[in-house]
Amino acid sequence: MSVLVFANSTNGKFKKNAFEVVSYGKKVAEQLDSNLVVLTINADSTEALYTYGADRVLAVKNDAFTTFNAKAMASVLKQVADAQASKVVILDSSIDTLHLAPILAVALDAGYASNVVALPTSVSPFTVKRKAFSNKAFSHTVISTENKIIGVAQNSYGVFENPVTGTTENFDATVAESGVKSEKLERITGKVTIADAEVVVSAGRGLKGPENWGMIEELAGVLGAATACSKPVSDLGWRPHGEHVGQTGKPVATNLYIAIGISGAIQHLAGINASKVKVVINTDPEAPFFKAADYGIVGDAFEVVPKLIEKLKAFKQA
Amino acid sequence: MKILVCISNVPDTTSKINFTENDTKFDTNGVQFVINPYDEFSLTRAMWFKEKQGASVTVVNVGTASSEPTLRKALAIGADDAIRINMEAVDGLSVAKQLAEVVKSGGYDLVLAGRESIDYNGGMVPGMLASLVDFNFVNGCVAMEVDGTAVSLSREIDGGNEVLTTSLPLVVAGQKGIVEEKDLRIPNMRGIMMARKKPLKVVEPVALENATSTQSFEKPAPKGAVKLVDADNIDELINLLHNEAKVI
Ligand SMILES: Cc1cc2nc3c(=O)[nH]c(=O)nc-3n(C[C@H](O)[C@H](O)[C@H](O)COP(=O)(O)OP(=O)(O)OC[C@H]3O[C@@H](n4cnc5c(N)ncnc54)[C@H](O)[C@@H]3O)c2cc1C
Ligand SMILES: Nc1ncnc2c1ncn2[C@@H]1O[C@H](COP(=O)(O)O)[C@@H](O)[C@H]1O
After folding, report:
1. Protein residue closest via CA to atom 4 of ligand 2
2. pTM of the shown model
3. According to the CATH classification, is domain A199-317 in 3.20.20.80?
4. Which burial class, exposed, middle or buried, applies to A35 when counting CB atoms under 10 A from its CB (0-12, 13-18, 19+)?
5. Which end of chain B has fewer CB atoms at under 10 Å, N or C?
6. Which CATH architecture does the domain made up of A2-179 adopt?
């Protein structure tokens, strides 16, 4: 019996969430007194995973996976799980993994708990803590099937070094037929994406109009941050839809979330509450966001943000 | 084209979340239930296919009698008929298995659902359903066209979109983009009147065990008060973020 972790990669490179699930999987394997097996698909090099405790890595290399293919990748995971007698499969919460996880759950007839934020609190019955009600609560969920899938919520467990001498073997997987074909990727390049960012700078209707986003972009640039916005801002067409965060937009689970001219409506907070530290800049001391924030400045964004940019530049240079 | 839209009945986005019975049950007291926002986008797309391409639209929910007002609302928006599978939904896999029975017996070509339900946030039912009935599957769909059995779509990816082609039969989990906010419909009086006469069939679930279940709920620890920094003292904010929060 083994614990299987899928270390997802994009264009051959791992992101932080791959290290997070390996760190998590290492501990779960200890809890269950079983082996850890880590699977990669078309990763350039698997060595980085050893740092987080991946002593045994199985590498699949196949041109069929140059573009993402949910059904075929789920089938590879199933083949590895069968070959390694994996009863517990651990996945990240990237958009692509969320796409393949339910397909895998059916293939393994596994109970699947997504949005898991901590190590299992018990292995018998197998119990995990997961986010529910859009971050307004947690559910202690029991998975009662023999096979189990855990989806670890992004940036919830953390990355822990645990260096081992690892080995990597090739795994020959059969590529399943898929009825869905990728035609084209339309990706904004050269920008930090919300899913990857350590810091997100987000702005709302308080900024009055799209022409005022220059300072938001600049602040994000100084911090190496992604930019985001509230829903009305994208509905009004001030910013692209991809920047809309909140309950009905993208989820944000970053280390630092800076909200500028955003009131902090419950639907906005529901999507960003998983962020670790929240800073609010708002003219209205009664804005609900102050109740959800860690740090706040009551002030006019048009005065505060330029000063913040200037001070941060000085801080970064120091 | 026969379309089935999966409707999850969820607490309104502004609801206060509380629990009863020793934190084992969601407290529905005073909570208003609505069509899951993502499902509303998909339902609206289905209405478009009905009006422009002559599709028929059935809505389905796995839930208790308390979901019926939400199904009636979907009928008032324009769905032709509704099915309720009479069971409390607790686990994604078992909900998907119940829905699979309806899909198999109903001969649907296209199943539209939402990216996730905003109560349990599973993000799993549509993909599971697609696998169970062996339909194609696209998640997080932000645009979609059907021509005969050929389908072209876009799905959201990290930092952009991916354009895909596939064919019916198909399950799609939609989100904003599959239609725009302004296209969402508020039922009018005539729709509400007509909805009362439209068929709402209640079917009994097949016998199944739940794969997962909630043992208890927990609310996040109350947050400490915000630390306010004077607008003239940005250095202090930087200091706090660097030395106390350690995020810059
Ligand atoms: C079903 C549903 C789903 C929703 N989903 C989402 C979602 O996913 N994401 C989301 O964001 N919203 C969502 N909403 C909308 C949400 O309810 C709010 O309407 C929205 O978040 C408000 O956006 P805002 O804070 O930018 O604008 P406003 O509420 O107009 O707030 C603007 C803020 O800017 C401040 N301000 C004004 N001038 C300045 C200045 N010069 N400097 C600094 N501050 C200033 C004001 O004091 C105010 O607090 C949803 C609503 C519904 C009904
Ligand atoms: N009880 C249910 N009845 C009908 N459809 C559901 C139900 N639960 C989930 N769905 C559908 O599956 C989608 C994803 O839900 P979930 O996997 O619960 O996050 C929802 O947006 C609905 O379209």
Report:
1. B61
2. 0.96
3. no
4. middle
5. N
6. 3-Layer(aba) Sandwich (3.40)
